[in-house]
Amino acid sequence: xxxxxxxxxxxxxxxxxxxxxxxxxxxxxxxxxxxxxxxxxxxxxxxxxxxxxxxxxxxxxxxxxxxxxxxxxxxxxxxxxxxxxxxxxxxxxxxxxxxxxxxxxxxxxxxxxxxxxxxxxxxxxxxxxxxxxxxxxxxxxxxxxxxxxxxxxxxxxxxxxxxxxxxxxxxxxxxxxxxxxxxxxxxxxxxxxxxxxxxxxxxxxxxxxxxxxxxxxxxxxxxxxxxxxxxxxxxxxxxxxxxxxxxxxx
Length: 250
What we know:
Elements: E1 6-9, E2 14-18, H1 29-35, E3 40-44, H2 61-74, E4 80-85, H3 87-98, E5 103-109, H4 124-134, H5 136-142, H6 157-163, H7 169-180, E6 195-200, H8 208-217, E7 221-226, H9 233-236, H10 238-249
Parallel strand pairs: 2-3, 2-4, 4-5, 5-6, 6-7
Antiparallel strand pairs: 1-3
């Protein structure tokens, strides 16, 4: 029995999709539909988030990584491709570190090598303080808008709204603490997986320096930049994003 909600679609070699802060499994809807034609697409909702809102949230990236690996083991998933978005990209890097040789190809999407992200639209401490003062309802109104060039007018913004309906202040704060305290920079040289790094040039959560650091320090990596996209490229340019992911994995 799984501890968390895990959506599982399609057949073929497993591909695990990890969402980011304030996300859910549903936020991969456009990817599941397309990629499940060629892969067994596994998209968990992290503890305390989305469809796993009833599960106690975690306050460290390492604990989140261990939770995902434990649940994949319960599903008898021995080898898999791994895509992590934003905070999910931190979890993905941590999984590479602790999982042995389970992971085949790696995609680090809109993420970086340190959790206390320089150049973020606001510091993680500021996000925590605003969460404490404003409450979770204001946080989920305010933050996801920053992930799209068109803010809440973006076509698929509703997927972000759906993801945050049941999240608690505790879960959000634990995630902010987890990100702030995580550092993966020293481990980049040990990532020997064939790696694709994806970034939107209007991203105000992770600036170019963050993705360039990944690309320069992960030995077997390539960087693809989406012009005119922000933090949620997979929902702003889904067709192009999906095809790039498929081409990299096949």
